[in-house]
Amino acid sequence: MIVQIPILFKKNYNKYLKFIYCILILLLSTNRLFGIQQENKNTIIVDFQKTPISKHKEILLDSGWDFYWNELIKPGYFDSEKKPEKISLHSWTELSLSNEKKLPSFGYATYRLHFSIPKERPHVSLYIPAAYSSSKTWINGKLISEIGRVAISKPKVQHRRFTQIIPLNTHDTDFEIVIQVANFYHNKGGIDQPLLLAETNHLYSIKKRKTIADMIFIGCLGFIGTFFLLFFLFYWNKDKAILYFGIACVSLAYMALSDRYAPFTEIFESISWIFLTKIEYISLFLAGTTASLFFYTIFSNFTHKTYSRILVFSFWTLSILVILLPAPYFTKLVFPFLILMIINLVYVTYIIIRAFIGKRHDSLLLLISMFLGSIVFYVHIFVFLGKKGDAIIYVNFGYILVFLLLSMLLMIRFSNSFKELEIAKEFALEQKKEIFIKSNELSKLNFELEENVKQLKNYNTELDSFNHIVSHDLKAPLVAMHTLVSFIEEDLGTILDDNAKNHFNLLKGKISKMNALINGLLEYSKVAKGKKNKELFHLNDLLKEVVDVINNQEKNSIHFPNKNLEIYASKIELEHVFQNLISNAIKYNDKEKGIINITATKLEKEYLFSVQDNGSGIDSKYHSKIFEMFSKLNVNDEIESTGIGLSIVKKIVSANKGAITVESEKGIGTTINFTWKI
Questions:
Q1: Cα 583–Cα 586–Cα 591 angle in degrees, nearest 5
Q2: For the whole model, what pTM was predicted?
Q3: Phi first, then psi: what are they for 636, rounded to 5°?
Q4: Is the Cα dihedral 395, 397, 401, 404 positive or negative?
Q5: How many whole angstroms separate alpha carbon 177 and alpha carbon 45?
Q6: How confident is the model at residue 161 (pLDDT cuts 50, 70, 90)?
Q7: Residue 174 φ then ψ, to 5°
Q8: Residue 106 binned pLDDT confidence (cut-offs 50, 70, 90)
């Protein structure tokens, strides 16, 4: 029995194995059959069999696409039970889905399309436009290209943006396109432009024309902008229109290069696409702003003054928002910028018409070129918003024409400025000759002034000698006369009557007045001579010293400033001024009790002082006369005065770069104000 079991198993082994193989094949065939049938049930093939493909015929693949949101599906792995969304190609933020769900900007998805084309056809290719996303493309199950890196999370995605031309197999008529897309940086997510199916040579011809036009545009603007920037920096920085024009050209060239070819992503493979996009947006804003500032500089006589401030404020606001805002919010700023530029262009058009009617501008050609530039920019905006195919080629050449015209006009502007500079140089040479002649005359005058200075020094020496004579030779006889009169009066004291005594008193009074007059003259001649010795002191302390000498009997009420101000000045000179002013306020006061108010204020560059009394006042017609030497308004000889005191005060105040004024009316009192430089 033990021997018979293996023999039986061996006998039926081949039969069992064949049976198992048949079951497996049947199961696999059934699953495959049901899968194909189910897939065919959910899949619609877009039929272009009856659509002729000619040399310039372009077929838009913009409808009939299967859309799988938040799924990255490879060919052969589509779920036969899951029904996809049927869409036309738009940014997925603009799609109308069956569940009416609004899709966010960030996310990932899979697009799939089946289409059929005639067997008899020229060699055709598929044109895939640049999308604001990274993408991965399969055709008939074969991986054709991967732009950037597609993933389901932001850290793993690498954004890149390029157009593609993919040749199709000439032997196939049915094609399946599968495109995986991931977007984590732009407000427009997914594929937003239709794919094109056309003859290969036609597509490459379009691409070649666009590339040539772009290279001419970028090269011309880059060269023109660099030339004018260097021209401004190293040669002619007097005209800011040159600077604005150069920046606008370079910014436009960089923006076009970065947007259409993104060379830095090829040079630096790991560089952030969001960082490059931020620079691209700032370049766009800078180009629009500097172009407008160029216009403002040219037409400054016709534009409002706040126009340039609005432009600069708008640029910095948009640029700061681009830097600070995360994706996708900063990519939405292009729309308000375009609105701002359209409003700006309306204003530019108005100013151009106004300048043209006014006929005040230097060049009609400049107005024409600006008007042409406005038209081209209008077209560019509508091309940008409307995606009008090859029209960008003509727009580029329109820009080049405008910028070449403006370059020529800037050089004409420079030429005119240079001619004006040459005229100014000739005028400067003539002025130099005149200055040379005047310089010789001034040299002669300087020589004469030096001689006069020598004479003045001699006169000063003689004046010093005169002062010495006055102080010694003239005062000595006066002292002797006064003493002699006193002796005679004493000797004749018993025999003198009242009339004789009165005459002797008058004589002594005249001698005293003569002595005071000589002292006043000496003091006046010494004022403002020599160096000023400044010191730090408190004003009220100085005033107390003055009042103690003048008001020793305390018959008058003298009020000091409320604040004991700290003064840095020549103490002796200021003391002399206050002594004269307070003494006059007491001497010429007709009230039983004189009231004198003194105030002081420290200003930014000077002190302001005031001395006010309640005396008889001074008529306004004598306000300037009181500061003249020997001027005496009081005719009463009982009040001893030389008429020199206020003239000395004015001379001291003037020497300290101050001014003195009087405020007074007859019978009301007098206020004398004077300033003193700090």
A1: 170
A2: 0.56
A3: -75, 115
A4: positive
A5: 11
A6: confident
A7: -105, 135
A8: very high
